[in-house]
Amino acid sequence: MKIAGHTKFDPDWHFGVWKLRWRSSVVETLQEVALSVMKSSRNGHNIPQLVQDDDKPIKFTDWKTYLKQYFKPLKNLTEMRRHPALWE
């Protein structure tokens, strides 16, 4: 379900392209998974990011701590509720 006015974005489409290739792939290692991601797009849009790759390290961010400097926490917020008028 999408909220009115919101659309899918390019990463969703590229993930779908990889999913099509993945269904017909036989892989046994993480490197083979990464190779299937690279081969899934003709223009090189799908770029795998391996967690323990020394050449291209992935930086993990503690978003809760980072965003705390910009936003105040909302008390007693445990879940997101949607107004029925927004349902499609």
Task: List the topology elements.
Blueprint: H1 10-23, H2 30-39, H3 63-68
Sum this structure up briefly:
The chain has 88 residues and is mainly alpha-helical. Helix content is 34%, strand content 0%.
Strand percentage: under 5%
Total helical segments? 3
**Total beta strand runs:** 0
Main structural class: mainly alpha
Distance between the termini: 7 Å
User: Largest beta sheet, briefly?
Assistant: none
- Are there runs of 5+ residues with pLDDT below 50, and where? none
* Radius of gyration, whole Å: 19 Å
Average pLDDT across residues?
A: 77
What is the element string, with H for helices and E for strands? HHH
What does this molecule look like?
With 88 residues, the protein is mainly α. The protein has a domain at 23-82. It is built from three helices and no strands. The protein has helices spanning 10-23, 30-39, 63-68.
Index terms:
mainly alpha, 3 helices, 0% strand, 88 residues, single chain
